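Side project, low priority. Logging it here so it doesn't get lost.
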Amino acid sequence: MSWLKECILNWFQFLVLRVIKTGEIPKHVAFIMDGNRRYAKKQNLTIAEGHLKGYNKMIEMLYLCRDLGIVEFTVYAFSILNFKRSKKEVDDLLDLGRQQFKHFLEEKKKLKDDGIRIRVFGNFSLVPEDLCKLFAETMIATRENNRIIINFAVAYTSRDEITHAIKDMIQGVKDTDILPEDINEDLITDCLYTYKSPNPDLLIRTSGETRLSDFLTWQVRKLI
């Protein structure tokens, strides 16, 4: 009966898409990936398995959102605060990132056919060099794709982002590239890691919690 259940689910998803499309569809949606460890504990899985299942479900959600007409996604993949977790969990999360970005490179033709562009932002000084290289190769390989944009926030917090923006502006004043009176909200926005993207229309936290967890606090206006 599994095929029948899948068929019913597909028709249900189709119906949901048709209903939602009658309203205003956000163009840019951000996601905080959360709840993977609690899920793993409930299902008697390892934490690494919980993160993998959470990631796979997130990819599934992105494709569903794409069918709604959403054209840009930003995913909180790894917070700077995550480095405080156990070494094993941090290593597992970084390895998951390595596997996924290697997969992106292997599937770059499909990404091109689907028009999917991958971007990564964050404090790369905290990320292992080999992983930074994978980020760069993936961004270069997909930079001409222009139908869907997926942003991954890695080694990121808003406080770190805003701190770097302030430092950049101070340096700009020292170098006489800008004047102190030039500093305003627009300039700060242009100095953020997310300067290439419009602000998200919506932020979704997958666990149902309503905390921002230091994610896009400058950019986000609505959280569900």
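Brief comment: The first strand starts at residue 28 and ends at 32.
Revisit when time allows.
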